[in-house]
Amino acid sequence: MKKYITDEKNGLDYTLVNGVYLPNLVSTETNFEIGMWGQRHLAYIKQRRKVFYTSLLTNCKLNTYLHDIDVRATEMFDRLVKQLKEQQGITEQLKADDMMTWVQAVNNITNQAREIVYNEIIYMR
Fold it and tell me: Positive or negative, the Cα torsion across 55, 76, 35, 114?
């Protein structure tokens, strides 16, 4: 028996292993680290969009997709926090003058930005 064969019908290559031909499957999936936003979106699609999740997983596109979501969400969050700080006049001078007011304002801004990212990216795709 030949060690390697190619099926002309489907174009797949096979390797003989212990008397059985197994397809040579090569993963095109990259191995990006997935941050907080990507992990939250993963939990969402696993629970609410199971067919979409399975499709990404079987097509070896899940990691790339989650990395894209993570990057877009992180950029959006950082941009929103910066814009909201400017709009509300939250400055380093306020931090120096009244630390507690600054902390409350920044916490409020980060919560607002987080909710926007959840609604626009994490739970909408």
Answer: negative
Tokens representing 3 are: 């060690």
Tens of pLDDT, residues 21-54: 888 776 556 788 999 999 999 999 999 999 999 9
CA terminus-to-terminus distance, the chain: 49
Distances (CA, A) of 69 to 6, 15, 66, 117: 37, 37, 5, 11
Report the alpha-carbon distance of residue 15 to residue 19 in Å, rounded: 10
Could you tell me the two tokens for 13? 């290559």
Q: Are residues 62 and 97 in contact, defined by beta-carbon separation less than 8 angstroms?
A: no
Task: Return d(Cα 66, Cα 34) in angstroms, integer.
Answer: 7
Which residue reads 């630390």 in tokens? 99
CA distance 38 to 62: 10
For residues 88 and 82, give the distance between their C-alpha atoms in angstroms, rounded to a whole number. 10
The answer to whether residues 118 and 73 touch, using CB atoms and an 8 Å cutoff, is no
Q: Which helix (H) or strand (E) holds 2?
A: none
